[in-house]
């Protein structure tokens, strides 16, 4: 982990994500890159080119001033947490969020992303829309999603969900490394149901491979995978959940209303998304 990207919209949730990224960067001797992207308003050409140019210039200036003000605020927060020595760089670009993130990942050699969520109409919701080039789903950089109001302090246990696929191992190793850096224990969940049948040979192989990492394996027999994950989070006091995402609907369901429930249930802990 060398460069951590944090998309920011200047909200308190985004600043919280930035502070966590600084904390993570300090433990990994990495740097943090703050990214803000914005769009220009649509102007009726009949209003005149001069008026449009003046408005666009005003928008650019306003965005830049907000960016400067927030950076000052974040610097003060970082100092209060003893994180002022972590290297921070800034980037403000004109364009769509997911396009800007993907471009920044390539240009700046980003290898980790920290994103915040703050409601149904925030940046994350826009990224998780129908765009086929969604960062969360098509990128190849691990992404830590921090739901609004989640705890980012005093973590004790990090969880990981797996189907015991070979492609899950690299993500699991990275999750274990994060747990070690943060001083957390690691637990690994497998939901045993008719759709996830795995041989004892494969399971025992995983246990042997990760024996030295003191991984505690948990098996849940819920027929619905979401129910199994919720049981795992609640019963094992999981503070962060690592997972490999294979399809959009499953990951989106973690953060949205369950159709079979009358009350809204949202995952309230950070999710570390690895890409298959």
From TrEMBL:
Coiled-coil ranges from the UniProt annotation: none
Domain UspA: 1-147
Xref: InterPro entries: Rossmann-like_a/b/a_fold, Universal_stress_UspA, UspA
Source organism, top-level taxon: Bacteria
The family this protein is said to belong to: Belongs to the universal stress protein A family.
Name recorded for this polypeptide: UspA domain-containing protein
Organism annotation: Flavobacterium davisii
